């Protein structure tokens, strides 16, 4: 297996898991440009953040398809609002813009991840091996027989680690975690790397087929 990477948001920026047979290397970097720098040699990179948004209106097809696949766990999907909403200075302003453009306000959680979406949206070029993923969907695809509890519970955390053990050795992956990242973050980064590995070998399922206003594809790789 070629080295692949999974990326998830962390308090200090982005936590990156670079996975190759028998080893996982961890980094915490401040921004999207830093992610691209540390993953330059990877065959594929899965990122848990919307990659590409509409300019002023419209829901992303991939968000709706991901939510549909997740079923009861669909609340883990935060649909990416238009860029005009993401650039609002505060949550009330964002809600006002969202209502004007889409007819619906955005959640506070979505507003809080706006800077992370814009971090990737601002890149002048996004390499084709960097793809959007959704860790909860990755885990459910990796372990379709598991009825996952909330990831905030001990049972849910254990289930997710056990699911990842079907792909890699948790004793190796979790042995030397970086400072600046939480357990949820590193676990989701590993799930993102699993989908990246499927993308690298041509086995990933693709949800969505739209282009953003800059001509970049918007989809979720599973």
From TrEMBL:
Protein name: DUF429 domain-containing protein
Pfam families referenced in this protein's UniProt entry, alphabetically: DUF429
